[in-house]
C-alpha cells in the first residue's frame, strides 16, 4: 500500500537513540530488499548500520554484485551517482541527505573541463594529445566526458595504474580535480615535478606558457580536498620526535610533502588494513578524515596500538557528516511506506558514457 511521503522536519526533533531503534526496525522490515553501503568517513552512528563498508573502489565493485531493490548510500553525492550508474535499472539508489556533496568534486565542472581540453588541443600537435583522467570524486558528467574522449576514471587505490594505462593511449594526461592525488601518483611513476604543472582552469591556457604545456606530462587541475589540505609536515616532525619508532600513514589527497614524509600512503581501505594488521603496540600517526581515525583509534586500543590524528584542529568532512541517524531513519521509513525519497538518478545518456569509463577502470585495476 502506498502512504503519503513523510516530511523530514518530523524527524528533526527525534533523538539519536530513538532513530537508532527506528533504523533497525525499518531494516528488519525491508530485509533483502535493502542494502546499505557505508564509506569509511561516515560517523559511527550511521556507519554501524552499513551492510558493506569500504573505500570508493571497493564500494564500486560491491554495487555490481547486489540484488537488493534499494541501495542506500552513506557517503557523498558522487558515490551515490557511481552506485546508480553501476547498478541495474530496476534498482534505486538513495542518498539520505542530498546536501552531502564533495567540495573537491565541485572544483571541476563540465564547461571548465571542456574549455581546458579545447585549449590544450589547440597548443599540442596531433601526436601529443591528452587523455582526460577524472578522480572518482567528480560529477557524473565529467566521467561521461572522459568516456566520450577516450579517458578514464581512477580512485585513490588505483590512480598510478590508471595513469600508466593513460600514457599507453596518449602522450599527456589532464588529471582532475585533485592535484595532490595526481602529483603523488605521477611522482611514484618517476615523473619529475616540473613536468606536472598546475592547470588553473580560470586562467587562459591554464596559466601556463606554450613551452610549459609542450614539456608537461600531467596537467594537474587546480583542485584539492579542504580536509586533507589541513595536514602539515610539522605534524609529522612533531610525532617523529615524540615517537621515533612510530609510523606515519596518509591518504594521497594530502599535500605532496606530507605524502613524501609518510611511511605509507594509500586509500582509506588501505589505511585501515595496514594499521589493523600491524603488530601489537605499534604507534601510528594517521593523515585522513577524523571519523575514520577516531574509529580506528578505539578499535586498536585493545591491541595496545596508539593511533593519533595528524592535526590538532578538527578535520572532519562536513558534507559526509550530513548523513546522520535522523536522515537515515527518515529515508528508510519512506522506503517502508513505498514512497522512496532522495533517489539519485543520472540521466541515461550521461550514465552510459560514465559507465564506459568506470568499467574501463574496473578492468584496468
Ligand atoms: P577513498 O576512495 O580512499 O575512500 O577516498 C575517498 C575520499 O573522498 C577521500 O577523501
Ligand atoms: Fe570530498 Fe574531501 Fe570530503 Fe573526501 S574528505 S568527500 S575529498 S571533501
TrEMBL record:
- Chief localization: cytoplasm
Task: Name its cellular compartments.
Answer: Cytoplasm
Question: Cofactor binding mode, per the note?
Answer: Binds 1 [4Fe-4S] cluster per subunit.
What residues does iminosuccinate bind to?
39, 56, 135-137, 156, 251-253, 268
Q: Which GO terms describe its cellular component?
A: cytosol
Q: Which domain of life is it from?
A: Bacteria
The record's listing under InterPro entries reads: NadA, NadA_sf, Quinolinate_synth_A_type3
Q: Which Pfam families match?
A: NadA (PF02445)
User: Any idea which UniProt keywords this protein has?
Assistant: 4Fe-4S, Cytoplasm, Iron, Iron-sulfur, Metal-binding, Pyridine nucleotide biosynthesis, Transferase
Q: Name one molecular function that GO assigns to this entry.
A: 4 iron, 4 sulfur cluster binding
**Which positions are annotated as binding [4Fe-4S] cluster?**
102, 225, 317
Which Enzyme Commission numbers does its entry carry? 2.5.1.72
Q: What is the catalytic activity of this protein?
A: iminosuccinate + dihydroxyacetone phosphate = quinolinate + phosphate + 2 H2O + H(+)
What this protein needs as a cofactor is: [4Fe-4S] cluster
User: What family does the Swiss-Prot or TrEMBL record give for this protein?
Assistant: Belongs to the quinolinate synthase family. Type 3 subfamily.
Name the job this protein performs.
Catalyzes the condensation of iminoaspartate with dihydroxyacetone phosphate to form quinolinate.
Q: What is this protein called?
A: Quinolinate synthase
The scientific name of the source species is Candidatus Methylopumilus planktonicus
